[in-house]
Write a structure and sequence with these properties.
The chain has 424 residues and is an alpha/beta fold. It is built from 24 helices and nine strands. It has a five-stranded mixed sheet. Strands 7-6-8-9 form a four-stranded parallel sheet, sandwiched between helices. α15 packs parallel to α19 and α22 (364-381) packs across α23 (391-403). The model is unreliable at 1-5 (pLDDT under 50). Bound molecules: iron/sulfur cluster (2 copies).
Length: 424
């Protein structure tokens, strides 16, 4: 749905939330039980319907853009569970992002929101040159035994946000570098660009390497442009549209125009890529959006030779895969093709785990509640391996499993497919 062309109420004309989208809400309330913040707080204004009411009132000039309105939008995870539930097709994600962009531009800030952490994350994560030294320090923190001491003594307990960040830390891996071309290992299907992501390439470089290996085994020439940067997903969700557009435009330039598909293994990045056509008005961005695919969408159309993997695995639907990209069946189908693997469903699989980009850093109280709820559902499933197609979910679920004392392996579906892949 395109942005409204003229000023509406408290919103100016630049990227205003669509009035048509706001008015599509018929207030039925069907989305409420699917909204994580409504489930936890039970407050209308922290539900999709309440948030739409606020945005529409502002768009119709009945409400100013106030810190209170901003706070209700800040507390939203942007998970888009409400979009899946909504029978009227309300494009909640785009309405939220457009409204946040206006709040940011006009400097309307909720005092309870952690703006400093947001700014730090947005200025650090997209820049590998800034993240790399940080990772080096974290590696030293872990290998020196300092982490075990800090955790064992509970030294960060009084500092909730610092503790939230520290608790998410996985064992910092060694860097994995990929060649710029990984050639197809069977008759070539075409050329696939691989998005390596900013956080993904540092924390889950092995998942990128396995993604390239699976694509090559399935017959794709895998192109990994060295010049690629961040896709801008975090900035888009935070309403930093100028920075988002600048990052997106650079990313579009870094991928050759002759690629057949552009593959990502991070749900949040994939969802943002697929929306480039909405937010960027040029043909190359629309072209990239049309070629963007989650790895599961690509592999499901191939016939990978897979060996036995006798495991019981639970699947968690990453929000930006299930709700953002409507990709639910393909990862399940791929996992079911692994001989011996038993796939189990978890209750509320599509309810956000609390990760939501940097949400678990900026809103630790809500994120922790949702993380605990997710672990309870996984525990009930009986599976001791859980898989999800998004790095943020992997970190969040692993953290809460650790804290709940649940012995749980948390892996990307690509990891399981790569384990089962028969080398020919
Ligand atoms: S995006 Fe998620 S958290 Fe926000 S209103 Fe919709 S369901 Fe609720
Ligand atoms: S967003 Fe959709 S499901 Fe939710 S109240 Fe409005 S019309 Fe109903």
């Amino acid at each position: 749905m395109s942005a409204a062309p003229a000023r509406s109420g408290a919103f100016d004309a630049s990227d205003a939330p669509s009035m048509e989208g706001l008015r599509a809400c018929v207030h039925c309330g069907i989305c409420l039980p699917q909204c994580p913040t409504y489930r936890v707080l039970g407050q209308e204004m922290d539900s999709p319907r309440g948030r739409i009411y606020l945005m529409r009132a502002a768009a119709e000039g009945r409400l100013e853009l106030t810190p209170t309105l901003a706070r209700h939008l800040d507390l939203c995870l942007g998970c888009r569970g409400c979009e899946t539930a909504c029978p009227s097709g309300v494009p909640f994600g785009q309405l939220l992002e457009a409204s946040r962009a206006q709040l940011v531009r006009k400097g309307v800030r909720a005092p309870d929101t952690d703006h400093a952490t947001t700014r730090w994350a947005l200025e650090t994560f997209p820049h590998p040159a800034r993240l790399a030294p940080l990772l080096w320090g974290l590696k030293l923190y872990q290998s020196s035994g300092a982490q075990a001491f800090v955790r064992g003594m509970g030294l960060l307990t009084p500092f909730r946000k610092l503790k939230a960040m520290e608790s998410l830390l996985p064992a910092v891996p060694s860097a994995v570098s990929l060649p710029e071309l990984v050639p197809a290992r069977s008759r070539s299907r075409g050329r696939a660009g691989l998005l390596t992501g900013c956080v993904q390439r540092l924390f889950y470089g092995d998942v990128n390497a396995k993604t390239a290996r699976l694509l090559a085994a399935a017959g794709w020439d895998v192109v990994v442009p060295r010049s690629q940067g961040c896709c801008g997903a975090l900035h888009l969700h935070a309403g930093r549209l100028d920075e988002f557009r600048s990052l997106a435009a650079s990313l579009v330039q870094s991928f050759p125009a002759d690629l057949d598909v552009i593959v990502t293994n991070a749900a949040g990045c994939g969802s943002a890529l697929k929306e480039y056509g909405h937010w960027l008005a040029d043909g190359a961005a629309r072209d990239l959006a049309a070629k963007a695919r989650d790895i599961a969408e690509v592999l499901v159309d191939t016939d990978l030779p897979l060996d036995d993997l006798p495991l019981t695995v639970a699947y968690h639907d990453a929000c930006h895969l299930a709700h953002g990209q409507k990709v639910r069946g393909e990862p399940r189908e791929l996992l079911r093709r692994i001989p011996g693997l038993r796939l189990v469903e978890i209750q509320d699989s599509e309810l956000c785990c609390g990760s939501a980009g940097i949400y678990n850093l900026t809103e630790p109280a809500m994120a922790e509640e949702l993380g605990r709820m997710k672990i309870a559902r996984i525990r009930e499933s009986g599976a001791r391996i859980v898989t999800a197609g998004n790095p943020g979910c992997l970190l969040q679920i692993a953290r809460h499993a650790r804290e709940a004392g649940l012995d749980l392996e948390v892996v990307h579906p690509v990891d399981l497919l790569a384990r089962a892949l028969r080398e020919t």
